[in-house]
UniProtKB/TrEMBL annotation:
The organism's taxonomic lineage, starting at the top: Bacteria, Bacillati, Actinomycetota, Actinomycetes, Streptosporangiales
Record-given protein name: ABC transporter ATP-binding protein
Gene3D superfamilies on file: P-loop containing nucleotide triphosphate hydrolases (3.40.50.300)
Keyword terms of this UniProt record: ATP-binding, Nucleotide-binding, Transport
Any one GO molecular-function label of the UniProt entry: ATP binding
Native organism: Sphaerisporangium dianthi
């Protein structure tokens, strides 16, 4: 079966709340697709509809061309992590997975394989009630992989992960995609998906507001911009905006400049005796690219309101 998810025209209301308002996108094999958007955008509801846990009022969700309920051995087609907290606290990780494997007619050997894949082998016999949220996420991911599915769908898998866990999960998601699987990962923090997602579906108010490759998004957001690192951001902005550049503050000590080549930026700052530690071609972070996409960036444009740069 092909590793794809196709969602078309999903609509769903909970009473007066419109959770899904025509959600439409597809997830392709061999890529990590980030599913992003603010709280309440409809990400979890979409995933629940894909898995047949919620019924849509309208529209269709297909996994490898079939609705979830039409899959004969669902866990071998799609693995999912929706709520890592939903565990029996008295059961060990191994016990939990054995129970799941048994209910699906899978061999116990596969349980040890997935425990190893997610790095839980040494904690496998401890009770899950004592697990940190990060360990529960790993256990949830192990459960998702039990059936060696072509499609993997994880809702907020970075939640509760420590920095080491975040690095691990990024690499892990990349390896799942490299094996040809279709991987859909939701997050409301863009930084989590940095260097991980190949493609991005951005949702807002129950529908898709952007469906784009990450490389294209970052390329477009980077533009022909120059990044300046400086301990004097206000002076830097004043001088460069005064000379006609479009400038934007993207961090405490980083300014981006459009319209000027790096050597012109250096000459202007030197000429005005403004200190800086680095001037380089700018590569937008995923978070920055997303902010631009959703037009949240704070921008200072040259002639518009010079007083803001003072
Ligand atoms: N079972 C439910 N009953 C009532 N309203 C619900 C239910 N599930 C979701 N909603 C509402 O539907 C909307 C979409 O919620 P959803 O959880 O899908 O968003 P989300 O993008 O996953 O958000 P988050 O990032 O917070 O998980 C929200 O307004 C939410 O309050």
């Amino acid at each position: 079966m092909e590793a794809t998810i196709e969602v078309s025209g999903l609509r769903k209301r909970f009473g007066r709340t419109v959770a899904l308002d025509g959600m439409t996108f597809s997830v392709r094999p061999g890529l990590v697709t980030g599913f992003v958007g603010p709280n309440g955008a409809g990400k979890s509801t979409t995933m629940r509809v894909i898995l047949g846990l919620d019924a849509a009022d309208e529209g269709a969700a297909l996994i490898g061309g079939k609705p979830y309920r039409g899959l004969r051995h669902p866990l071998s087609h799609v693995g999912s992590l929706l709520d890592a907290a939903a565990l029996h606290p008295g059961r060990s990780a191994r016990g939990h997975l054995l129970w799941l494997a048994h209910s699906q007619g899978m061999a116990a050997r596969r349980v040890d394989e997935v425990l190893d894949l997610v790095g839980l082998t040494s904690a496998a016999r401890r009770k899950a009630g004592g697990y940190s949220l990060g360990m529960r996420q790993r256990l949830g991911i192990a459960a998702a992989l039990l059936g060696d599915p072509a499609t993997v769908m994880l809702d907020e898998p970075f939640n509760g992960m420590d920095p080491e866990g975040i690095v691990w999960i990024r690499g892990f998601l990349r390896s799942l995609a490299a094996q040809g699987r279709a991987v859909l990962v939701s997050s409301h923090l863009m930084s989590e998906l940095q260097d991980t997602a190949d493609h991005l579906i951005a949702a807002g108010r129950g529908k898709v507001i952007a469906d784009t490759s990450v490389a294209g998004l970052i390329g477009a957001a980077s533009g022909n911009r120059v990044a300046v690192r400086t301990a004097a951001p206000q002076d830097t902005m004043r001088v460069l905006a005064g000379a006609g550049a479009t400038v934007a503050a993207i961090g405490r000590d980083t300014i981006t400049v459009s319209g000027f080549a790096p050597d012109r930026v250096v000459a202007l700052l030197n000429g005005a005796a403004v200190p800086f530690s680095e001037v380089s071609a700018h590569r937008a972070s995923l978070e920055e690219a997303y902010m631009e996409l959703t037009r949240d960036a704070v921008e200072f444009r040259a002639p518009a309101s010079p007083e803001v740069t003072r």
